Amino acid sequence: MMKLIDCPHDPSKRVVSGMRPTGPLHIGHYFGAIKNWAELQYKMESYFFVADWHALTTDYADTSRLAEYTEEMVTDWIAAGLDPEKATIYLQSHMKELADLHLLLSMITPLGWLERCPTYKEQLQNITGKDLTNYGFLGYPVLMTTDIVITRARWVPVGQDQVPHLEMSREIARRFNSFYGDVLPEPEALLTPMAKCPGLDGRKMSKSYGNGIFLKDSMEELTPKVRSMLTDKARLRKTDPGNPDVCNLYPYHEILTDEATQAEIRSGCLSASLGCVECKQIMLKGLAAFLAPIQERRAAIVAKPGYVREVLTAGSAKAAVEIHKTMDVVRQQMHLDYLK
Fold it and tell me: Which alpha helices (DSSP H) does the chain contain, by range?
């Protein structure tokens, strides 16, 4: 392990992650990230940020709902288990020194590294109706690296599919350190299990597709959604045996019901003794039990106007202290502190 220059804390015990503000969160966000964050906050020094600058890389043309989306997302974070007393929750754009380090890292990052980024190529092909020929979109990995290394965190919770993106952050940090000394820890992946949460129509769950199960949805709203869910396309009648492994509904039983119930559902589906309507009723029961405590906490947060702003203000002030320490060392090592 490298010896960091004038390290203000032990980076081996710090974790950092963020999320773009897109409004209220769905169940996929919870099982894909928030559940793990809530567990990590009791084990490690945890920093979680609202990535509002990242939102601008693709949605720069209309920023009118950023504040609303930020409020909704942080409300869901706390309702779903993040504790502002345990984790530092902060606003990316409030950390002005992030812009400083982003600029400095952009100076040493080869253009070829950015152009070969898998996400860059994929989204250029898949996102239509937006002009993505801007530096912000191309330079997304540099900003992501900045978010990580400026906190001097060692660990970043990611799924296996995100490891290649984190490797670029490691390369950028390594290149910076090769010029200026071991200033920035090379971030390491904290691999997390990724629960499968397909959308109601079988596609990836997304607000834009209108196929999501949102943490704020009432059971009155969710019941017709679940009843209309696609299941095994090959099972046309209740008397036809089904296949849970290709069913759009079964992954929800894996995250919402106990193992004994899952086994009964699997057996009933394969033998055609359990119909899809009954299967959906079991899913709705599990969904109601899961959402009830989250929505109770959410209602309490909504009933306190200004609470989310207070959380972000306090968390941003705390994060700024560590970020300032990092930038002091960066400026010193780059000889940019001559007027200090």
Answer: 27-29, 35-40, 52-59, 66-79, 96-108, 111-115, 118-126, 135-138, 140-149, 163-180, 219-227, 250-256, 259-271, 276-302, 307-333
Q: Per residue in 6-45, pLDDT tens? A: 544 555 689 999 999 988 899 999 998 999 999 999 999 9
C-alpha to C-alpha distance for 105 and 331, rounded to whole angstroms: 12
Q: Which helix (H) or strand (E) covers residue 156, if one does?
A: strand 155-158
pLDDT per residue as tens digits for the range 200-249: 888 888 776 778 899 999 999 999 999 988 888 888 888 888 899 999 89
Q: What is the domain class of 219-299 according to CATH?
A: mainly alpha
The answer to whether the CB of 207 falls within 8 A of the CB of 22 is yes
Rounded Cα distance between 251 and 193, Å, is 14
Kindly report, as residue ranges, where domains of CATH 1.10.240.10 are found in the chain: 219-299
Q: Does domain 11-196+304-333 match CATH 1.10.1040.10? A: no
Residues 69-88 have pLDDT tens digits of 999 999 999 999 999 999 99
